[in-house]
Design a protein that fits this description.
globular
Length: 405
């Protein structure tokens, strides 16, 4: 459904569709919740505002309309929190946008069939970002104030000492999924995603792959590895999912581990622009600054036209993954076990893998990947390094290099 068009003013859009303010902020338009700021830029048309940021208006409008539509259609299912006076089990987190609604539908059905469970949950779309979740974790200076079950991706959220890292060190969480061995895609001679400490569990991963525009390649060979992306010939030729913080952070961590700070600098020099993954699929239609390579979540390959110039490439050295963690309180094991079994089970695993192309760790689900490889920094690297500090340094190096002519 079409709610807005590019000729409407920003003020009109925000007043008529308040949920659009969150979308604007996700795309870098800050402080629109401030009435004074909104009045200053609000009289400008959306088209003129997007022009100043060199953002394709047609694509932006398309996804803003989709965002508004989803917000309005799904308000009932999103806000279900089982109005219970004494909440016994709390679930909080972020779900990948493409599978959030089917997961919530399945979860609600599960709760209806298990009415003895008293549950309050807040599971937002991943596009909402981690800030609200981080604030909640920071405020929770005592384990009792934390939700009983957390679901989300995010290196910084789960490993920084000022966030979940401090609780992990205290062994507040416990993997109670009962899964002895992860799916063979994630537990083999080359990779082991299962937390050796038994604190964190995982549900699946978001893999990053390449989308190569053959029309833009020229005499360059198709890049088939992360090492290829870092070559000088791909300077100012690559689009990265910077706004997808979890995946971008995972890319930085893995490039830093495998290629060092020099690799991060080369990645920064390769950056042409930052696109939302949904924009990346249509990047061949951009009138200027058309990327040769876009690095994007595997899910979006579903949208590629078979007869178009864009070809998906699964990196030979492995798709960088952003793990989707599930944290469960050890002291609540008995109360939450039934919910954990459902979330880590085959039904949810198939939604992750088959509907969302987010491969699951559930061993009973076929991820249909034909033994494709993944790039994962490993638990030893996580435990032996301060991931928060590494990310801050990598971002500084990356963005400084990206600004060089």
């Amino acid at each position: 459904m079409k709610y807005i068009d590019e000729n409407m003013s920003v003020l009109e859009i925000c007043k008529k569709y308040p949920e659009s303010i969150d979308f604007f902020e996700l795309k870098g338009f800050k402080k629109l919740k401030d009435e004074n700021i909104l009045k200053i830029m609000g009289n400008l048309t959306l088209k003129s505002v997007l022009l100043t940021k060199k953002i394709d208006a047609k694509i932006f409008v398309e996804f803003l309309n989709e965002y508004i539509d989803n917000s309005r259609k799904n308000v009932d299912i999103t806000m279900v929190e089982k109005e219970i006076t004494s909440q016994e089990i709390s679930v909080m987190g972020l779900l990948p946008c493409p599978i959030r609604i089917p997961l919530l539908e399945g979860f609600n059905k599960f709760l209806e069939e298990n009415s003895e469970l008293k549950v309050k949950y807040e599971l937002k779309a991943a596009s909402a970002g981690l800030d609200w979740l981080k604030e909640d974790v920071i405020r929770a200076n005592h384990p009792e104030k934390l939700a009983d079950i957390f679901i989300s991706a995010g290196f910084d959220l789960f490993f920084e000492d000022k966030l979940m890292g401090k609780f992990k060190k205290e062994h507040i969480f416990k993997d109670i999924t009962g899964i002895e061995r992860y799916n063979r895609d994630f537990q083999n001679d080359e990779i082991s995603l299962k937390d050796p400490d038994g604190d964190y569990s995982m549900l699946g991963v978001v893999p990053a792959i390449f989308l190569v525009n053959r029309d833009m390649l020229g005499d360059r060979e198709v890049p088939r590895s992360w090492k290829d992306i870092l070559k000088p010939e791909f300077k100012k030729s690559v689009s990265l999912p910077i706004s997808d913080f979890d995946l971008f952070n995972s890319i930085l961590v893995n490039i830093n581990k495998n290629y060092g700070e020099e690799g991060i600098e080369k990645l920064g020099k390769a950056l042409l622009q930052n696109l939302h993954p949904a924009q990346m699929v249509k990047s061949d239609k951009l009138k200027e600054n058309t990327p040769t390579v876009t690095i994007m979540p595997y899910f979006f390959t579903k949208m590629i036209k078979e007869d178009g110039p864009m070809i998906p490439i699964w990196p030979e050295d492995g798709a960088v993954i952003s793990p989707i963690f599930m944290l469960t309180k050890k002291e609540k094991e008995e109360k939450i076990k039934k919910i954990v079994n459902y979330l880590a089970g085959e039904e949810v695993g198939k939604i992750f893998s088959h509907q969302g192309l987010f491969p699951t760790v559930n061993p009973n689900v076929d991820n249909r990947l034909e033994d494709k490889k993944f790039m994962w920094c490993g638990w030893d690297y996580i435990h032996n390094n301060n991931i928060g500090e590494i990310l801050e340094k990598c971002k500084s190096i990356f963005f400084k290099a990206s600004e060089e002519e």
